[in-house]
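User: Predict structure, ligand KG4.
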Amino acid sequence: MLVLGIESSCDECAAALVAGGSRLMAQKVSSQIPIHSPYGGVVPELASRDHVRKIVPVIEQTFAEAGVELRQCDGIAVTAGPGLIGSLLVGVMAAKALAWSLEKPLVGVNHLQAHLRAIFLENDYSYPHLGLVVSGGHTSLFHVEGPDRLRQLGRTLDDAAGEAFDKVAKLLGLSYPGGVSIERAAQKGDPQAFYFPRPMPGKRLDFSFSGLKTAAAVRIKKQGIPTGDALGDFAASFQEAVVDTLVKKTISAAKKEKLKRILVSGGVAANRRLREKLEAGVREEGFEVRFPSISLCTDNAAMVAALGGCLLGSGNDDGIMLDADAGLSWDAA
Ligand code: KG4
Ligand code: ZN
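Assistant: Predicted complex:
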């Protein structure tokens, strides 16, 4: 089954063709980083306007790259939520128009479930396992029972980890996306140089990153923006606090749920320090952790097509009546 995936939930406009649920034939991602950079974060109105401009060319280029005709795809999957409503609507409307005109089945998929399916494009894994989705919009732990069967164990009560990276990077005068520039600045820094709290160290599996962000903001306000070596130290210390929190909660969740395999996804899963520390922590427990390649961690349409392939393959489509509506918030579990 050849599935077209469409992703436009935030600031990436993407299309991909995936055969058999896991063979990526072509993918095109149009990034909006230059558009949002001056603001240090995604501006929803600008995001949806750019999706309107890009969605058709991105889909056309994906088919051209794969060397297949539109009518050769067997079904369409589109991110229907959660996300920015204006952005979601562009992808959902494009998907509906294509499904209707081509008379192909359509399925609206959950963005978090799609993130957790990304790694299946590179390897096959059995269920159940523990899933950590850590991005600009989400920081959630799931007991993953199947491609669309998730039990939420914990989530952020305020900012997502990626959002904290983005906001602190902005305060430091670093470029967007903040996680990438903080990681770069942290490379030569000392992670112990500055003290930052490890938020919510208790037994709960929820996260909270806004206190940590405020601690960074207060320090910058009092002492000014660090420069030279101090900037590297500040970035490394902040990154370490985010990473320690993610590692601790993830390992606690795996132990609590007695799940030995952890799959991680979302933009922050691209962070090398997180990968190192989670791998080390998990090894001590005799568990295993797997991350998708960096290009599959951040928002993409291959993961949407991969999940769509599973769902459509099991007859789980929304039919040609197209009731895949865009939803601002949509619980994954
Ligand atoms: O999954 P994603 O592309 O979009 C959402 O669904 O949010 O994630 C984007 C987020 C941004 O907050 C960005 O700063 C963060 O992922 N990010 C990183 C890294 N690369 C992207 N955070 C830490 N380290 C990175 N290398
Ligand atoms: Zn995402």
